[in-house]
Task: inverse folding
């Protein structure tokens, strides 16, 4: 299927990389019909390859076939992660594959760069689960170079690196991430370093109110207010701090210790294996960022769609509790399929996010340790008689 929307997004991407193909290395001069290029250098190289593979972007049908293959690869990587954790019931995979029109549109119809970044990210997580941390960090940095939303996973990854390698041990891994960014951006950094950094890593970029999915119920002046943005940032940092101190730290350390033969201090409500806790920390880190995002556009749904089943089912579930979780997935899908977004759809989306956060917080809380009195050392009458 092909639509005018496909041509708008694809054409803009091709125009942005065409300048680089013609020798332009000043990042501020790379632009398309929808505006200037605002993605890091990894995006340029990947879509430059697509530019040449599709006859300078003219063969949109071939591009859609390539993105269909990317969609299948992405599912394979996600399924492999879920199989390692063994927390999600098999029937949920049906909803992940077949029940989201919006995700199919983002991949195959609209040809956005978001699914490219997420596929690389899921490959990096697979490498983390296989204990290939250096290669995983390299792929993680590559995903960041395609789109910066991958940085929402960064707090969780930093926590895992500190847990796994310690402060000094994680420095080489962080250097791998930084070095790749320098190497990819070097042609542009040598020509106009300020232009490259301000364009590709612009954290203060304003979003258009007409495209927001999550803040439609706010007045536009509040949506664009810097104080509101600062409040969301503080809420994000507070959420990360609370989870790191009270959910990630205790739970992950205890479960990792049990897998290494060390007796954990206290059992948790949600007994996950080491792989499951790695995934939980990364997925919850990203989810906290999504909840506190200044704006979510329709293509941003792919940022966390494939993580939602895990976040819902990683906590204890009785047989009767499966249906509310499936219903929650359906309501979130309905919110993202409401175009344009409404006050009701954006409020409902926040309610769903809040319910998931509450479940993650209370479902992974450590159980209180029962303090049993030590046995009395006073010998009983029988023991005296035995003596």
Result:
């Amino acid at each position: 299927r092909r639509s005018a929307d496909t041509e708008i997004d694809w054409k803009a991407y091709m125009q942005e990389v065409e300048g680089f193909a013609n020798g332009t290395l000043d990042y501020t001069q790379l632009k398309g019909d929808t505006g200037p290029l605002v993605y890091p250098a990894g995006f340029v190289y990947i879509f430059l390859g697509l530019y040449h593979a599709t006859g300078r972007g003219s063969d949109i049908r071939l591009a859609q076939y390539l993105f269909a293959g990317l969609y299948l690869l992405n599912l394979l990587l996600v399924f492999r992660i879920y199989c390692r954790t063994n927390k999600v019931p098999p029937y949920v995979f049906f909803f992940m594959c077949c029940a989201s029109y919006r995700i199919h549109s983002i991949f195959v119809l609209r040809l956005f760069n978001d699914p490219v970044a997420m596929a690389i990210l899921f490959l990096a997580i697979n490498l983390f689960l296989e204990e290939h941390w250096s290669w995983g960090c390299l792929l993680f940095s590559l995903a960041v170079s395609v789109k910066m939303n991958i940085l929402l996973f960064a707090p969780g990854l930093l926590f895992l690196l500190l847990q796994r390698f310690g402060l000094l041990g994680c420095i080489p891994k962080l250097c791998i991430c930084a070095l790749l960014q320098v190497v990819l951006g070097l042609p542009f950094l040598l020509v106009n370093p300020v232009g490259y950094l301000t364009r590709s890593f612009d954290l203060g970029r304003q979003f258009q109110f007409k495209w927001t999915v999550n803040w439609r119920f706010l007045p536009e002046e509040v949506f664009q207010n810097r104080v509101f943005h600062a409040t969301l940032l503080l809420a994000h940092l507070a959420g990360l701090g609370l989870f790191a101190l009270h959910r990630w730290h205790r739970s992950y350390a205890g479960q990792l210790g049990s897998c290494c033969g060390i007796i954990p201090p206290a059992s948790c409500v949600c007994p996950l294996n080491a792989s499951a806790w790695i995934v939980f920390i990364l997925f919850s880190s990203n989810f906290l960022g999504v909840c506190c995002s200044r704006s979510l556009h329709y293509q941003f749904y792919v940022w966390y769609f494939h993580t939602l089943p895990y976040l819902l089912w990683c906590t204890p579930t009785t047989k009767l509790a499966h249906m509310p979780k499936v219903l929650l997935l359906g309501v979130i899908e309905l919110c993202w399929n409401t175009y344009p977004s409404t006050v009701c759809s954006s409020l409902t989306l926040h309610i769903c996010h809040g319910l998931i956060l509450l479940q993650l917080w209370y479902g992974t809380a450590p159980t209180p340790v029962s303090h049993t009195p030590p046995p009395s050392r006073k010998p009983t009458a029988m023991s005296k008689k035995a003596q």
